[in-house]
């Protein structure tokens, strides 16, 4: 199964509370922090909602 490398590019401060919770749930804390997440439907749905804040790369 592929993994997704997710990097927080823009701060989640002053965003909607739902978006801040998604950022925190993914394990992103500061700008330029990076986490590995599994490539599944739940993760893709969360990433879609904060797409303007992150950069996503697929890692095999």
Automatic annotation (TrEMBL):
Q: Which residues form the Large ribosomal subunit protein uL30-like ferredoxin-like fold domain?
A: 4-54
The protein's matches in CDD domains, at most eight in alphabetical order, are given as: Ribosomal_L30
Instruction: Please name the GO terms that the record assigns under molecular function.
Output: structural constituent of ribosome
Query: What is the superkingdom listed in this entry's lineage?
Result: Bacteria
> Sorted alphabetically, which keywords does the UniProt record give?
Ribonucleoprotein, Ribosomal protein
Q: Does the keyword Acetylation apply?
A: no
Q: What is annotated about its quaternary structure and interactions?
A: Part of the 50S ribosomal subunit.
Q: Which GO terms describe its cellular component?
A: cytosolic large ribosomal subunit
Database matches in Pfam families: Ribosomal_L30 (PF00327)
- Please name the InterPro entries in this protein's record: Ribo_uL30_ferredoxin-like_sf, Ribosomal_uL30_bac-type, Ribosomal_uL30_ferredoxin-like
Q: Which GO terms describe its biological process?
A: translation
Q: Which gene is transcribed and translated to give this protein? A: rpmD
Q: Member of which family?
A: Belongs to the universal ribosomal protein uL30 family.
**What name does UniProt use for this protein?**
Large ribosomal subunit protein uL30
């Amino acid at each position: 199964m592929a993994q997704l490398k997710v990097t927080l590019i823009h701060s989640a401060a002053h965003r909607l509370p739902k978006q801040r919770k998604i950022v925190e749930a993914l394990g992103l804390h500061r700008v330029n922090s990076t986490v590995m997440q599994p490539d599944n439907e739940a993760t893709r749905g969360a990433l879609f909602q904060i797409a303007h804040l992150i950069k996503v790369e697929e890692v095999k």
